[in-house]
Amino acid sequence: MRISTFNVQNFYLKENENIDEYYNKLSKFIKTYSIDIIGMQEVVKELYNKFDKIIGKPRMIINSKYNEYNPIYSKYEAVREKTYHLPVLNSFIPRIATVAVYNANGKIIRIINTHLALYKYHFVKRLEFKKLIKIIEKENIPTILIGDLNLRKESSDLKYFKEELSKIDMKLVENTSSTYKNEILDFVFVSKYMEYKNVKVIGNKLSDHKALICDIVL
Asked: For position 68, what pLDDT does the model report?
C-alpha cells in the first residue's frame, strides 16, 4: 500500500492556479505515483469539495486566511472517521488531527493526518504530542501517522516525540531528503510491526513543499 503526506500550501494555489487546473494536476500526481492514501495539509474548501472519498472537517478561525482542511483521500472506503482539535494556547492558529479507519483489501488500518504548530512553540507542540498519543492509544490497530509536523530533523522536540511514540510501539519512517527548502518538516510514523520501503521525496510545481511517499507492508 502506498501512502503519502503532502502540504499543498493553499496560498500557492490561490496565487498561481484556478481550482480546476490545480485539482486536475494534483489528481494526476496522485495517479502517476499510484498513491493509495494521501494526507494533505493546508487544503482550502474549494479544493476539498472537488474530491470524492475525501474526509475530514476544517479547522476554523472566523474571517481568517487560516481556515483549512487536513483531509485524507483514499481509493478505499472509510469505515469511520473523526476530527480532533489539538491544543492551541499561544500558538494562535488552532490545529486539528483527521483520523480515518479503512478496510484496505481486508486489512483494517488507521490513518492520522495532522499539521502541527510551528517549531518555535515548543510548549504547545509537547501538548499536541500528548493529544496525538492519546488518540493513538484509543484503539489497538495498525496505525500510520502522517503530516506536516513542523519538526526539525535534529530538534529536541522530534527526539521527544520519537521516544514517546516508541513507548506505544510506533516508529519513524526514516527519510534523509528535505521536504521544505532545506528542512524535513513532513513525517510518517507507523506501528512498529509494519514494514516500509521505497521512501521517496517528490518535488513538483504544486507546492513549495515536496510530497513524502512510501510503501507500507501490512
From this structure: 85
CA dihedral 76, 80, 83, 87 (to 10 degrees): -110
Taking alpha carbons only, the member of 50, 54, 55 closest to residue 25 is 50
The reported pTM is 0.95
Are 186 and 5 within 8 A, CB to CB?
A: yes
The residues near 97 (Cβ < 8 Å, ≥ 6 apart) are 70, 83, 84, 86, 112, 113, 114, 131, 132, 135
Chain centroid to CA 106: 23
CB 76 within 8 A of CB 103: yes
**Could you tell me the sign of the dihedral formed by the alpha carbons of 62, 66, 70, 71, in that order?**
positive
Q: Grid coordinates standing for 45?
A: 474548501
153 neighbors 184 (Cβ within 8 angstroms): yes
Residue range 61-88: mean pLDDT, rounded: 87
